[in-house]
Amino acid sequence: MKIKKLYAYKSKQHVWRILLTDSNQFLIETRDVNSKEVFFNCIDIKTGKPIFSDFQFEEKYWMGIETIYKDVIIFHKYAKPDMPGHKEIICFDIASQKVLWSNDTLIYLFIYNDQVLAASESFTGHTYYALDYRSGQVSATYGDNSALINQLKIKAEEEKDYSAYKFPEKISKETLLQIEDETQVKEIIKNLDIIGDVEYTSYENLLLMNYFFRAGGRKLQNKFTAIDLAANKVVFENVLMEDAKGFAPDSFFVYNNILILLKERDQVIVCGIE
Question: What is the pLDDT of residue 253?
């Protein structure tokens, strides 16, 4: 098997989050923690062609993404700076690049069957609502029926399809060496001063792994390696962090036959697997 680099997306800010849409587009959230600005970028996953770049709201920093549903991005604001609580619902259509609707009195919970489930808070508790995801119109009111909301949330989670994704798992160097004792994996990592766990997954005959190791002195390097286990050879390597200041987990994943790598916290490398 082969891995071929298709393109690289490079940002002036830190890549904070990568999400995929239903129509094979990347949504890349980048943040400048010094100027306190957040930017949202959308690119075509196959070509790297931008759909929109460095989109911002009037609120420049205290914004985030709840989810993407049928090419509609659901944003939120933060109830208080530096605090995790969310407020407001803002639905943004990727195709038209316009806000479809917003609601500043409700809090997003989850989405199910084309309905945004949301809640209002008061001193007496929560009141729950269902809103059409395209129009924002209230289609149902559930009062304080939290049992029903929990049932719907379970159904929503059960119906999510992650079959196109492969996310890495963590494993110790020692355990990985025991599993792959007779392969190139052993030759690559047995003499390395690996720090922490190895992140790995497989794709058909490929073993994909990401690891941190001391590369001379106290320099900490982060490297990604892909090994064709059938041919017993390395088919792709890339140094993701040349001089890491700390651990940066979740630096790669696979979507269908596309490998996505996060390099130096400001670059996304997209490769095809064939």
Answer: 96
Q: Which two tokens stand for residue 58?
A: 């009037």
Decide if 237 is inside a domain.
Answer: yes
- Judgement on whether residues 50 and 127 belong to the same structural domain of the protein: yes
**Torsion angle defined by CA atoms of residues 184, 187, 190 and 193, in that order, rounded to the nearest 10 degrees:** -100
As a whole number, the mean pLDDT across the chain is 93
* Domain hosting residue 217, numbered range: 168-249
Does residue 31 share a domain with residue 153?
yes
Q: Is the pLDDT of residue 217 over 80?
A: no
- Under a CB-based contact definition with an 8 Å cutoff, are residues 207 and 180 in contact? yes
Please return the burial class of 15, using the count of CB atoms within 10 Å of its CB with bins 0-12, 13-18 and 19+.
buried
pLDDT of residue 110: 98
In which band, very low, low, confident or very high, does the pLDDT at 272 lie, cut at 50, 70 and 90? very high
Query: Looking at the structure, do residues 117 and 19 belong to the same domain, yes or no?
Result: yes
Tokens for 38? 């957040």
Q: How confident is the model at residue 79 (pLDDT cuts 50, 70, 90)?
A: confident
Residue 87, domain CATH: 2.40.128.630
pTM listed for this prediction: 0.90
Q: Which two tokens stand for residue 150?
A: 């929990």
- Looking at the structure, tell me whether residues 153 and 176 fall in a common domain: no
166, 203 contact by CB (below 8 A): yes
- Please tell me the distance from the alpha carbon of residue 189 to that of residue 210, in angstroms, as a whole number: 11
**pLDDT tens by residue, 181-201:** 888 898 888 888 898 899 999
CA 31/CA 41 separation, integer angstroms: 11
Neighbour-count burial of 192, counting CB atoms closer than 10 A to its CB (0-12 exposed, 13-18 middle, 19+ buried): middle
Domain count, the chain: 2
